[in-house]
Amino acid sequence: DKMPEVLYNTADSGEDHGGDAKTRREAQHTDSGDTAWSRCYRLTAVCEMLLCVLLLTAITVLWINYHILKTECSQLQSSNNNLTIERDQLQTSNNNLTKERDQLQRERDEFLRTLCDL
Predict the structure, then answer these.
(1) How far is CA 27 from CA 35, 40, 99, in A?
(2) Which residues span the domain enclosing 111?
(3) For residues 69-97, b (16+ Cβ closer than 10 Å) or e, as one string?
(4) Is-above-0.70 flag for pTM?
(5) Where are the transmembrane segments (predicted)?
(6) What's the structural domain count of the chain?
(7) 31, 36, 60, 96: which one has the fewest Cβ atoms less than 10 Å from its Cβ?
């Protein structure tokens, strides 16, 4: 996996820029033969892999949270439906009791009138 040696040379303009300019343009080498560019590419690849792992982790966490919330929403919807049915039954019962009370009040009033007439 050794990268080919890369040298950066500028066109010779006839001027001697000294060894510093040439040294800056040449790739630096280590004992293993890696250039500074290959180390940079390797570091970039490692960073990209770390970002992929981080992204995959984030997607997994979001997916789990989504399904938890979806389940909770379904349970709340079911509970809401049950409470709505219970409310309707209580409302019907209340209406029936109100009618029965009104009927009993009418019967009582009629009974009292009949009693007073006697």
Answers:
(1) 6, 12, 98
(2) 45-117
(3) eeeeeeeeeeeeeeeeeeeeeeeeeeeee
(4) no
(5) 49-69
(6) 1
(7) 31
